[in-house]
Each structure stands twice: as structure tokens, then as C-alpha cells.
Design brief:
The structure holds two protein chains of two kinds. By secondary structure, chain A is an all-beta fold. Chain A is built from no helices and eleven strands. Chain A is 0% helix and 48% strand. Chain B is mainly beta. In chain B, strands 2, 4, 5, 9, 10 and 11 form a six-stranded mixed beta sheet that branches. A five-stranded antiparallel beta sheet of chain B has the order 1-3-8-7-6, with no helix packed on it. Chain B is globular, with a radius of gyration of 13 Å. The chains are: A mainly beta, B mainly beta.
Chain lengths: 116, 112
């Protein structure tokens, strides 16, 4: 299994440009998440989804949009990139609720985004 | 919103030493998780804690869920060079949500 796959690994954007960060998982996980990690900081939740067609805001959703048309894919969209969105973005997934049994949150390897 | 404060921010230790780090919050959490992040990678789960007072081990790692449900501790015994990385605590806010709140991380450096 590939697990959680994120593309691209690196990207540089100009202010005002738009882009989509791709995330795919092949584990048939229902729950998917997008986090951002600023230098020296922990991860902050941007958006999450508990299943296809269902998305909800996390702690820092402003400036981002998501969609979940299928179980496998959970893309994150930046419409008007701003320098404050320079960060490392992690996608993650889990089969069921985190509180269920010993379910783990599987992370992708991240997308490093710079907005100049 | 909820915040998790981790300490220390960074540690520089010699191989073979024991390590202790903790995570505190002003809010109650129902689940505590400890993750390790290697450079250029996503975090990997080390230990999950589900009950107040719970003490759980995973090899040389031991973690505890504080009785007040507002803190958690991670200990690493007999550190080795591959323990280098950033350790994050994370808390699940409530049973009705799957939002994980992450701490600010403890950066561990182990010298041979």
C-alpha cells in the first residue's frame, strides 16, 4: 500500500496565485484531514472530512477550500495565495474515529509551500 | 481555542541518558497522543492514551495520561541517536469530534 500520498512535495507561488495541493489515500479511510505546520510550531487543523461529500472547518480554515467527492481524494485549494500561507502542509487519514480502539492517524510526507 | 503547551522546547542530551517531556493544557482532553516527526516526514504515532491515569509503554518509551486530564508526560529511557527528532503531543478535544490539537513540539538532539 502507498498509504497517504501528497503532491507536490515543494512549490513556490507568487502572491495572488492559486493552486491545489493533492492528497490521496489507498487504505479506504473515511476520515481525512489537512494540517499546516509553521516553522517551530505544532500542526494546526485546516479542514477535515468524515466521509465523501462531507467536509468541515478546523482551527485555521480562512484562505482555503476543500472538496471530498470520493473516499480516496481530499484536495486542498488555495485561491489567492498570501505570504501568511507559507508553511508545510500535511494530509492525514484514519479509518474510523480517532477515539475508536487503537486507530492511528496516518500522515503523508508533506508539501512545502512558499508564497513570495 | 484550546492550546497545548509543550516543554521543554528543545533538549540536547548524551546517548544513554533518559528524557522527559510534558504537555499541559487549560482544557480537558479525552485522549492524548504522542507523535515523533523526522526531518522532511509526517508525524508517526508513538503512543496513544485513552484514560486518565493510564500509563502505557512502547519499548523504551513510556507515556502517562494525567489524572486531571489536562496534561500528559512522555519519557524515553536510555536514549539512542535515532531518537533524534521532534516530539509532539496531541489531544482529542471531545467524543463528538475528531479534531486533534497539537502541541508546539519538543526538539530532541542526542549526541553520541
Amino acid at each position: 500500500n502507498a498509504g497517504v500520498t501528497q503532491t507536490p512535495k515543494f512549490r513556490i507561488l507568487k502572491i495572488g496565485q492559486s493552486m491545489t495541493l493533492q492528497c490521496a489515500q489507498d487504505m479506504n479511510h473515511n476520515y481525512m484531514y489537512w494540517y499546516r505546520q509553521d516553522p517551530g510550531m505544532g500542526l494546526k487543523l485546516i479542514y477535515y472530512s468524515v466521509g465523501a461529500g462531507i467536509t468541515d472547518k478546523g482551527e485555521v480554515p480562512n484562505g482555503y477550500n476543500v472538496s471530498r467527492s470520493t473516499t480516496e481524494y481530499f484536495p486542498l485549494r488555495l485561491e489567492l495565495a498570501a505570504p501568511s500561507q507559507t508553511s508545510v502542509y500535511f494530509c492525514a487519514s484514519t479509518k474510523r474515529q480517532i477515539l475508536a480502539s487503537m486507530e492511528k492517524l496516518f500522515f503523508g510526507s508533506g508539501t512545502q509551500l512558499s508564497v513570495l | 481555542g484550546q492550546q497545548l503547551n509543550q516543554s521543554p522546547q528543545s533538549m540536547f542530551i548524551q546517548e544513554g541518558e533518559d528524557v522527559s517531556m510534558n504537555c499541559t493544557s487549560s482544557s480537558i482532553f479525552n485522549t492524548w497522543l504522542w507523535y515523533k516527526q523526522d526531518p522532511g516526514e509526517g508525524p508517526v504515532l508513538l503512543i496513544a492514551l485513552y484514560k486518565a491515569g493510564e500509563l502505557t509503554s512502547n519499548g523504551r518509551l513510556t507515556a502517562q495520561f494525567g489524572i486531571t486530564r489536562k496534561d500528559s508526560f512522555l519519557n524515553i529511557s536510555a536514549s539512542i541517536p535515532s531518537d533524534v527528532g521532534i516530539y509532539f503531543c496531541a489531544g482529542v478535544v471531545s467524543y463528538n469530534t475528531d479534531k486533534l490539537i497539537f502541541g508546539t513540539g519538543t526538539r530532541l538532539q542526542v549526541f553520541p
